[in-house]
Design brief:
single chain; alpha/beta
Amino acid sequence: MKIIGIVAEYNPFHNGHYHQLHMLKQAHPDATIIVVMSGSFVQRGMPAFFSKFDRTRWALHGCADMVLELPTIYSLGSAEIFATGAVRLLSQLGATHISFGAENTDATLLKQIATAALSDEVQEHCRTFLQEGYAYGTALRLAITTAYPEAQDSIQEPNALLGIEYLRAIQTHHLQMEPLPILRTSAHHEAILSDELPSGTALRKLLSTITLATNKGQQTSMNSNLQDSLTPNIQELLSSYFPASICSDLETTLNKGEHLDEDRYDNLVHGINRTMTTTRLSALADFTEGIENRWLHAVNASNWQSVRASIKSKRYTYARIDRMASYTVFNLTKAILSKAHLEGPIYTRLLGFSHSGRELLKRWSKQDSPLPCEVIQKWAPVYQSAQGFKQQLMELDTQATDIQHLCFKTDASRLGGKDYLYSPYYYKG
């Protein structure tokens, strides 16, 4: 049975994601497509713009067969931890292939680059660049291209490097998955809406700019610096960048204010960090080299964006700072993250499935031996009985959902306890 795995965040789910799923469905009509998706927080260290429950529903309407949650401990990790956790989880679920967007779709070349990245030569170069103050992703990219110049044009974008991380993890853990790269046509972090398939960054900016008055029936207002690029017709605007099958649902979700208000999250992080000490910070993941002293000095600034700008350097990129900030929110220590990375995923949560996904669930239930990881369908009873490390990880997932919803736009959307109320979504289409 062919099972194609995808590692995703769908932050938000847009035409580019639909394009990938649709192409896979056309090329592999007999395959089941399972998505391992970040939950309430994403790898850049921020709450996802929409809830994992909404993003699951939209992915299933957009050709996915099953969506499962990547535990928060991995979704908040570095590129290596994120990729390794997700790929190991896909392998435990029986994935035979992995598909990802890339600027170069030559699978053979990509596997060769991944092999080179594991070599002693590249690792030595990487250590050198790290000592020169580069961030890990940049150091690895420079190390690979120094030792393997042929890779120069294939790993310039962060998304391409993430694909290499998937392949490195497959090789390191001796997993049986073949890559199915799909050509990526938009810039990874390009913030303008100039492409047919724009980036998630651009679309989050667009969605944040649109302010829909949910209770007073007021007209839609838009940020003046984007006014020229937008149309007053919200349905027409959304249909330009999102699959038609989800546009109405997406508009309803926006109208309800069930989406991230980044200012609320910034204020929450800032407040938490004002209570920190060097001792507490030094125990957290990624706080090394005395950065906690600089960090604590920076949090005296009047707002969180000024704090970020004060800490930023060649080594400490905004993405890394944001991940570190999330560690302060959840008290995510070096010991917890290291243990999770070493052991690999021990469970995943089933968020939703289609008819094909249901057939796969039946197949799993009929196997002589259980899957290597637990697939949780009802969160509350499993959470209440969990113990030890599993309890710690599930508690992190639950806290992530509660924090994300607390930072949503409207009071009605900020209720806690959502994880306990949700059952897997079944898409009958």
